[in-house]
Amino acid sequence: MTKVLFYLILKPLSLLPYWVLYGISNFLAFVFYYLIPYRKKVVLINLRNSFPDKSEEEINSLCKKFYAHLCDIIVESVKLFSISNKQILARFKVRNPEILQPYFDAGKDVIIVGGHYNNWEMLAAGIDQQVPHDTVGLYSKLSNPFFDKKMKSSRSAFGLRMVTTKESFAYFKEEHLVPRMTIFGADQSPTYSKSVHWTTFLNQETAVALGTERFAKKYNMPVVYGSIVKESRGHFSLTISLLCNDPNDTKDGEITELHTRKLEEQIFAHPEYWLWTHKRWKRKR
To answer: In sequence order, which residues have a C-beta less than 8 Å from that of residue 111 and are 6 or more positions away?
Structure first.
């Protein structure tokens, strides 16, 4: 059934022009918000808890804007199944790749950390061609093997290497000649098996996974933050900023606090662009 869905629906949809796909996105946003609410209760609870000072009218307005953005991400992600390198480079720009050049010249690996904010799928497809390092994305394997393979293929079509979180320990021990930049998404709710850093994030007590910080310290990798900005519909840019040059000179939790605050700053500026359908606060102290 999954193969039928992909080859008869998703793949043909990916061949459509963007203006048609955004018409589909508009329809889906109406359906998800008004007719068949997709995790709407989760979205509203997350928004209310994150913005306790906002009125119910403001919360509902943010919710509606979020679904419009989410449906854009859905059709933009479908488009990645057939997008060309020229098209992705026209729609995703790395604004300041030169910030990475000194580390590359010195043979140093780096970590770039961010969250599920704006279009992280376009980042996966468009980053390797624009930075000096070889790029590697850590990800959680999908339960469906066929869609896991297709997702991995679309993300890695233009150079990005995909490594599952279960493979991460072996990956970091690999010998390699070209310096690597490893991409961490640090805003998912950590399982109870993982050690965490507790902080306040979006006005709520929040557990943040320590993976970014621990790998940075263990392998002495500088940490940068990747801020994705929505320039216009379907067009995004990435700005890289240095969080930590010498991770082993930082206190426990310091790197985690730094990237958490950067993401929070983005969300407060434009809340509708974060992934509010995610049950971010499942883990309690």
So the answer is: 181, 182, 184, 212, 215, 216, 221, 222, 223, 224
Task: Look at residues 148, 166, 146 and name the one whose alpha carbon lies nearest to residue 156.
Answer: 148
Strands 196-201 and 204-209: antiparallel
Which of 72, 2, 60 is closest to 33 using CA atoms? Answer: 60
Q: Would residue 284 count as lying in a domain?
A: no
Structural domain boundaries enclosing 229: 2-273
Residue 140: pLDDT over 90: no
What is the domain count for the chain?
Answer: 1
Task: Find the Cα–Cα–Cα–Cα dihedral 6, 10, 14, 19, rounded to 10°.
Answer: 180
Query: Is pLDDT at 143 greater than 90 in this prediction?
Result: no
Rounded to whole angstroms, how far apart are CA atoms 239 and 229? 8
pLDDT tens readout for residues 67-123:
999 999 999 999 999 999 999 999 999 999 999 999 999 999 999 999 999 999 999
275: helix, strand or coil: coil
User: Rounded to whole angstroms, how far apart are CA atoms 156 and 151?
Assistant: 9
Give which of 127, 120, 108 is closest to 221, Cα–Cα.
108
Between CA 43 and CA 59 the distance in angstroms is 10
| Percent of the chain scoring above 90 in pLDDT | 87
